[in-house]
């Protein structure tokens, strides 16, 4: 029984599937997890930072041109491109897709990068840098392109970022400095713990939005299904663009870049839509983005691990 539980807790597919199903099916019991999202994200980031080589992070920070252009593309160029293409192809989803594309890299991206065989230190740097710049770029893009102004206070967002990125990161470095050998001995368990925490995070978010998700999926409304289909296409295109846009980079770096570009901070996107938008064409697609966000990591991991010639 212990072996089965151990395998299940180490299986990304099992954890994520159980989290989504539980979040929808028993939302009344799991909704409270959403209030701990900041703590859970911080713990995941802490464990990721414990396994990250600070020297590699510093090396990537020294590559200022790469970090600058990666942030420029992810936070400015990509959202603008997504907005205008979507406005032409599917106008009803233009603002929703703009919001998703404008989000910084997700807090779990270093973990997802590790799971998929990517460069975890690069994912960590891109997560930190995009999150720090997002308070400036998101309001600017929304006002410029969508005609809506989202007042995201820098200090408010900085406080959140400090809780889930900077504090865990510096605590991890302190722990490694004080207990380096002990950390290495138990580091093998970090991935399993992080997977369970990720499952709890997703279960809480899904549970909080369960009524909207169930209403959209089971209402029989063809528009909601078209939203979901468009979201899957959107996420698939992000995978392709992220991986093949920089063919000269090492495979591990391409995987990390793809993860950071595709698996955005959808919790921040849901928060912004809940606070600043009332249009269902914005709210429903952003909430439904959790489905392709969760579902496509598994096939992406399969392709990059099995098809090593790519």
Task: Please give a structural write-up.
The protein is mostly helical and 310 residues long. It contains 18 helices and no strands. It is globular, with a radius of gyration of 19 Å. The mean pLDDT is 82.
Main attributes of the structure:
Na+/H+ antiporter like fold, 18 helices, mainly alpha, globular, single chain, 310 residues
Task: Report the sheet with the most strands, covering strand number, pairing sense and barrel closure.
Answer: none
Structural class: mainly alpha
Low-confidence stretches: none
What is the annotated CATH architecture? Answer: Up-down Bundle
Instruction: Provide the β-strand percentage band.
Output: under 5%
Helix content: over 70%
Distance between the termini: 38 Å
Run of helices and strands: HHHHHHHHHHHHHHHHHH
Number of strands: 0
Number of helices: 18
Assign the CATH class.
Mainly Alpha
CATH topology: Na+/H+ antiporter like fold
Q: Please tell me the overall pLDDT.
A: 82
* Overall geometric form: globular
Radius of gyration: 19 Å
Write the layout of secondary structure elements.
Elements (H helix, E strand, L loop, with lengths): L1 H9 L1 H14 L1 H4 L6 H14 L3 H9 L1 H26 L4 H9 L6 H8 L3 H27 L7 H33 L3 H19 L1 H9 L3 H23 L6 H12 L3 H11 L3 H9 L1 H6 L1 H10 L4
